[in-house]
Amino acid sequence: MDFPTRNPKSGGVAVEYCYASRGDSGGHEALTRSAISRKLGMLKGYAFSGQYDAAADYGGPLYFIPDDMIAGLDHARSLGISSEHDLFGGVVPRPFVATKAISHSLVHPGAGAPQGWSAEFGDMVRDAVLPGYTVFTAEDARQACSRLLARGPARLKAVRAKGGHGQTVVSGMAELEAALADVEPAELAGHGLVLEENLRDVTTHSVGQVRVGDLVATYYGTQRLTRDNDGKQVYGGTDLVAVPGGFDRLLTLGLPRAVHDAVVQACHFDAAAEACFPGIILSRRNYDVAQGTGPDDLRRSGVLEQSWRLGGATGAEVAALEIFRTDPGVKTVHAACFEIYGDGCEPPPDATVYFQGHDPKVGPLTKYTVARIDRNGREGP
């Protein structure tokens, strides 16, 4: 979905708007977000003023950089957010729209679901996601799991978890029962769980589009995994290829089949969200698309989840936007962000370092971004 043309406001102030991370000012996520927010303010042509203060007189329009999607159209309007030019991220009509819950249909038409649930969305994206279900009761989870296990192992996912956390592979009903026993009843009833087909040999593609003012960049890329300081496999960064303009521009690049399929499925998911959830506002769109082998040994491809907020790849997104602003003749940018755990990391001399030190929660960590112009894709001599 491409953005409509509209002249952005000028002479305003960029502010951070925090939900979950409030009070965690010394952590790597908060420090990275502040550094990126300052860059976003510069791209917008706005002054940066740190954390939003409802009592302050900013003397001009505000540009919000939330740490999560803003839930509630009335709440967004109360902040002065009415279009994609007013924030970096997204506004959704109800909290569940911001989670993995929307990526699958209910196990049967009469299954319990939160107010505002869209059965139409599940029908529209069925061919763009992996086989699976969203459930809000233990009994529905059992029914969904039983259907999936008839084909092979299933993956149980907490819908609000990020970075690959909160997931369990289930190979039998006893394993499901054990996993459900660890889920708080209020979490299941209020937010739901996802059960979907488990893939082998998975590659996760990132497909996205960002807008800041008149700048629009659309990209595809792949995620990297790494080991954290406890030896667990976690998100390690993203390598992306960005072009100025919309998804249609991206699809002119002569993409490999796997990438082309991922972009088309992300576009389908994106269009369905705007059709089924009126009032949604998105200036940052990112979709994780998994491709791998299903239990029948056939290739699978499907959108895992959406991220309509500042995310792990945003450092690379911003680097691409900065290049497109500096040189409008550039046609393609390769950008990458890295998250490297442990001591002794030395980022390249041309890297933008967002964090390097000891995080109170995860230990020693270095986060940086590098970007380069693809000269073969540049207009002019």
Topology (SSEs and partners):
Blueprint lengths: L12 E5 L10 H17 L2 E5 L10 E5 L3 E2 L1 H7 L10 E3 L26 H6 L7 E4 L2 H12 L4 E5 L8 E4 L2 H9 L3 H7 L1 E5 L2 E13 L2 E13 L5 E12 L2 H4 L6 H20 L4 E2 L1 E10 L5 E9 L6 H13 L6 E9 L10 E8 L3 E11 L8
Parallel strand pairs: 1-2, 1-3, 4-5
Antiparallel strand pairs: 5-13, 6-9, 7-8, 7-9, 10-11, 10-14, 11-12, 12-16, 14-15, 16-18, 17-18
Helix pairs in contact: 1-9, 4-5
Description:
The protein is α+β, with helices and mostly antiparallel strands. It contains 9 helices and 18 strands. It has helices at 28-44, 73-79, 119-124, 138-149, 173-181, 185-191, 247-250, 257-276, 314-326, and strands at residues 13-17, 47-51, 62-66, 70-71, 90-92, 132-135, 154-158, 167-170, 193-197, 200-212, 215-227, 233-244, 281-282, 284-293, 299-307, 333-341, 352-359, 363-373. Strands 15-14-10-11-12-16-18-17 form an 8-stranded antiparallel β-sheet, with helices on both faces. A 4-stranded antiparallel β-sheet has the order 6-9-7-8, covered by helices on one side. It has a 3-stranded parallel β-sheet with strand order 2-1-3, covered by helices on one side. Strand 14 (284-293) and strand 15 form a beta hairpin. It starts with 12 loop residues before the first strand and ends in an 8-residue tail after the last strand.
